[in-house]
Structure to design on (103 residues):
């Protein structure tokens, strides 16, 4: 079954192309989608894409603690994920050492 493309979407693309401003094909990302950050110090991190006050952010969560952190990112840093990885491992891992108390 064919579904027509909305006239407003076609008109928006025509206006953008005829504006003379450079355009580039872009991957389609939706708010609420699982994404992975692919560049910089945050590369490899996975979270949920949100839009807050016009800015895109990736929300990283610690399920067990029921806490989250939102990082403002550029959309071109991201790629969509079919579903989140079971293990969300950052690029770096830190070890802790237990130091016995003095008596």
């Amino acid at each position: 079954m064919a579904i027509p493309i909305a006239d407003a979407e076609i008109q928006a693309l025509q206006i953008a192309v005829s504006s003379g401003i450079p355009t580039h094909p872009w991957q389609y990302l939706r708010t609420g989608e699982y994404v992975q950050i692919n560049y910089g110090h945050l590369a490899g991190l996975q979270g949920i894409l949100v839009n807050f006050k016009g800015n895109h952010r990736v929300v990283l969560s610690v399920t067990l603690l029921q806490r989250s952190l939102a990082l403002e990112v550029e959309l071109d840093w991201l790629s969509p994920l079919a579903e989140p990885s079971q293990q969300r491992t950052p690029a770096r891992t830190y070890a802790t050492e237990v130091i016995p108390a003095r008596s």
In short: The mean pLDDT is 76. The helical segments are 7-18. The domain at 27-80 is CATH 2.30.30.30 (SH3 type barrels.).
